[in-house]
Amino acid sequence: MSKVVLHVLGTAQDAGLPHPNCFCKNCTEAIENPTFRRTAASLAIVLPEERAWHLIDATPDLKEQMARVQMKHNLQGQLMSSIFLTHAHLGHYPGLLFLGREAIGANKVPVLAGAKMKKLLEEQAPWSQLTKLNNIDLQEIHDGQAIAVSPEVTVIPVDVPHRNEFSETFAFWITGTEKKVLYIPDIDRWEQWDKDIHEACKEADICLLDGTFHSTEDLTNIGRDYREIPHPLMTETMYRLQDLVEQTEIYFIHLNHSNPVLDKERIVRNELEMKGFHIAEEGMEFIL
Question: What's the pTM value of the predicted model, to 2 decimals?
């Protein structure tokens, strides 16, 4: 049986840390101290013995993230075997352009996406050039469809509500022989989902959940309106899932630059960890 590794490539909200045109406390620290930086949320499913890997979301930080996972697992020069896309927002698909003529010049890398996302990539420039030049091979996936990436691992898209201006939005179940992972980097509200987040997390061994904002104050402090950028608050998620922390490992990911859990003084983060929750870190790995 081959070992399968889930590698956390990125943990930040779409624009990363530091955030463009921001000099808040967290961003200033990240500008001055590169070890404090975070790239956009993304995962890799790595099959070390097969010298293969699969990517979930092609972020604006793709070239850096690719190099990290390739060097960690001795995959230098080995392109991903496929790319799963969650949705059409800034942090989740612009990295596809690195596969194109101006950069890698890839040959038919399978890109798995929902019907609306597939149509966008086929018809809208500059993405359409990737399909015309056969840099990518678009494949339509559907809610609840199990996709085997190896004999040991299946990925199942799950439709979730999330400001779908341009495409549908998927979360993913990632199931190996030892662990079952629920990955939800973006969702509007738990109560808008047709599934119960508590019941879903109870089925999982590991959850990587939308941790964009800790509370409404995250955006108030930088002059933005929380209602324009809906995400479940970490405080609410912890309230809903507190009784599961002994049986399910719950990590927050997709962290906005203004989130106080990123403060180097760790006051809010320490409180969160005392309750049994975790913050996802880049380079973190789980055996599936």
Answer: 0.95
